[in-house]
Design brief:
Structural class: alpha/beta
Largest sheet: 9 strands, parallel
Number of domains: 1
Bound molecules: flavin-adenine dinucleotide
Oligomer: single chain
CATH topology: TIM Barrel
Radius of gyration: 18 Å
Helix content: 40-55%
Strand order of the largest sheet: 7-6-5-4-3-2-1-9-8
Strand content: 5-15%
Shape: globular
Distance between the termini: 23 Å
CATH class: Alpha Beta
Number of helices: 11
Order of helices and strands: HEHEHEHEHEHEHEEHHHEH
Length: 294
């Protein structure tokens, strides 16, 4: 089913995973997906590595997840470092496997490189790959958006203009970059609505698992860690259990508040670990339930 049709009827719950480095990690990933099935996610998705490094593996994992779990799986496709033919082939494979939804991205530059350079004859922006998919396929299409602005954007207004272009080209809903202060999300949604973006904007939340990891991720994504959360992480930097607990409590508060404000869905960046997400969802009644009931 197209995710847009699900969003028309209920608040969605979704989980994002990444492709593991080895076979053991792959089996752990499938165990995690299996154990999270009881929360009845509306869709799951699996990212690919920076620079398109794991695109083939990502496709195989999505296909396996779709076949084995029967869940709605959204494929990630990016144009970073790929030719048009390669990207087209990935879309064809998803289509032939019955995967109906894709999130179309430019992608991050390969590791070790700070700036994005399109492959020769490749797509330069998410807008280009969205246009290509719209003209050649019949997918439900999602795109990324950035409540605090994309790190390469000169200002929030220009980023919003390009976000609007993604929607005008055919993105049916948006998923936000992670954020730790809900005010960024509310402000972004306000600005987006004023700019004429009328599609659902699903907040993306990432439970903190480890202090140094989250500093790396927020540095790359440009997301802010609020001062009080930052102080707590600093105080417990060497105690991973304490940090994980701080992360659970913070993300739970964020999700509760967002749901009370009628967000169209909640998307969790699960980082392939089940502990935190389980603790959060066990305390989050109504995640993913019909908005008619909430
Ligand atoms: C939900 C989500 C999932 C993600 N999944 C992955 C993943 O699987 N793999 C991965 O590597 N990364 C992933 N990312 C990160 C993403 O690839 C990076 O943030 C990347 O730097 C930008 O991708 P984009 O699709 O937003 O690019 P774009 O929309 O192309 O934006 C990139 C920059 O160019 C500007 N821009 C956009 N369109 C144009 C245009 N037509 N002309 C000029 N400038 C333009 C934008 O303002 C922005 O500054 C994800 C991000 C999110 C929020």
């Amino acid at each position: 089913m197209k995710i847009k049709n699900i969003l028309d009827n209920k608040r969605t719950l979704s989980f994002e995973f990444f492709p593991p480095k080895d076979e053991q990690g792959v089996e752990r990933l499938f165990n995690t997906i299996d154990s999270l099935k009881r929360y009845e996610p509306d869709f799951i998705d699996i990212t690919y590595g920076a620079g398109g490094s794991t695109q083939r593996l990502t496709v195989e994992l999505c296909v396996r997840a779709y076949r084995e779990s029967g869940m709605t799986v959204m494929g990630h496709v990016a144009c970073a470092a790929q030719t048009r033919e390669f990207v087209h082939g990935v879309l064809e494979r998803f289509e032939s496997e019955g995967i109906e939804n894709v999130i179309l991205l430019r992608g991050d530059p390969p590791r070790g490189s700070d700036s994005f350079v399109p492959a020769e004859g490749g797509f330069a922006h998410a807008t280009d790959i969205i246009q290509h998919a719209r003209e050649n396929f019949d997918f439900g299409i999602a795109a990324a958006c950035y409540p605090e602005g994309h790190p390469e954007s000169p200002d929030l207004d220009s980023d919003l203009r390009y976000t609007k272009m993604k929607v005008d080209q055919g993105a049916e809903f948006l998923i936000t970059q992670l954020f730790y202060d809900n005010d960024y999300y509310y402000d972004f949604v306000d600005r987006a609505r004023r700019a004429g973006i009328d599609v659902p904007i699903i907040p993306g939340l990432m439970p903190i698992l480890n202090a140094s990891q989250i500093r790396r991720i927020t540095d790359l994504s440009g997301a802010t860690i609020p001062a009080d959360l930052d102080r707590q992480l600093e105080q417990h930097a060497d105690d991973n259990r304490a940090v994980r607990q701080i992360g659970i409590e913070h993300t739970l508060r964020q999700a509760q508040e967002l749901m009370a404000n009628n967000v169209p869905g909640v998307h969790f960046y699960v980082l392939n670990r089940r502990y935190s997400i389980t603790k959060i969802l066990d305390n989050l009644p109504g995640a993913g339930v019909s908005t008619a009931l909430s």
